[in-house]
């Protein structure tokens, strides 16, 4: 007998309809957030073609366009009053003029010219033209930490000098490779600068020298940018850098020091053996340095969208989702894909937008894909200072930055209990009921030496008295490296964290009142007056 196709088909359909019908709208929303969809989006955002999403770059603008287009397709409305999904942040871009940027070595009557970006690269920012000259001093590793028994600078007068030092590429088991000393090593230029040096020239590691010579790469010549207008939430205490920092190739270093290349190699070998390389003063040698810049205007964009709440009154208040979609760009042949940082949070928000189509809360929900986080949280600072909706109406901000690595059952929460106990209570209740991650508060202390409290986009919201939390899976050995790529992503964990954020937002969005500001004695109202509060 032939099976009755119509009948079996009907049964399947019926059981499907029943099982579908049994699910709440919220369950359907949660289940719409899938590892598979997250991967589809991240395949685009973290691809090599985006060249690391530097600020500003055409690739970052295309990423912004991709996000806005999908946000629209998921039913989110533009947040800007002119009907745009893009909040424009004006920038000034400083480009080094190659023809006039150079270093000269003057030895008696002899002058040697070195050029950018072939022989040397400029480190850090250059906001204006610079001219400096000084006698050369070589200081080995240039590290001064008498308490660790290592001092390359003891008794040296660095005032007005051009200081040459070696890159600290040290072997794994080197005595200076403790996390504590690594932190001090990162600061060695600042220490030398504070002793009055005019310029610091760092001789690149052997590994980089080989990369340059074998692959024909030059130093990074990507133009630098800065904000066109100062922001109130930016700390003005940052000390003005008066010295120049540059990196130099081995041939240039050998010329400056007046030694053969082999001797320079020996110096690096000594460092690798754990030995100090002694300083030497080169009073007969002067460096004459000039940097010439050109300025132009540019802009970057926060992508901003929203979906209206379901309650007539509560929809005038907001829950916010935030992430940053910029990263570090590319240099010397390396693309910094930033799959975890922060492709992960970026695409999580696309899934959140899709989930809200199934079920959304009483309050309205705002989505901000921040720009220029890697430059110093510019996008989030700009957003709170130029928000198209009143910050007083923002109940909370949920920040996602790096949410797809490390132990699958482990998640850091940063700042969940700093302004409102409600936020932390809600997160824990959601976790206990649905998610069952091990929540870790190790990094939430503003005094923690790694400073995570200040290092992502939740912080400007906190400065404005808006309870905000950073969902964070922690750093890995790939943090800010070219190896932060999609093949290392744990999509199951990302799905879990994204569902966690969705459910948390639903509770905050449906709560009869906005989250209460009850944790910090000085922050009892939302608004920019809280900027005065010091966290350190
Ligand atoms: Zn990040």
Descriptive notes:
- The chain has 536 residues and is an alpha/beta fold.
- The chain has 14 helices and 22 strands.
- The strands form four sheets. Strands 1, 2, 11, 14, 15, 18, 19, 20, 21 and 22 form a ten-stranded mixed beta sheet that branches. Strands 4-3-13-6-9-10-12-5 form an eight-stranded mixed beta sheet, with helices on both faces. Strands 7-8 form a two-stranded antiparallel ribbon.
- The longest helix has 20 residues, at 339-358.
- The structure holds zinc ion.
- Zinc ion (ZN) binds at residues 324, 341-342, 373, 401-402, 456.
Q: What is the percent of helical residues? A: 25-40%
- Report mean pLDDT, rounded to a whole number: 93
What is the approximate shape? elongated
Strand content: 15-25%
Count of individual helical segments: 14
**Distance N terminus to C terminus?**
81 Å
Major sheet description: 10 strands, mixed
Q: How would you classify the helix and strand content by structural class?
A: alpha/beta
Round the Cα radius of gyration to an integer and report it: 27 Å
Poorly predicted runs: none
| Bound heterogens, unique | zinc ion
Give me the count of strands: 22
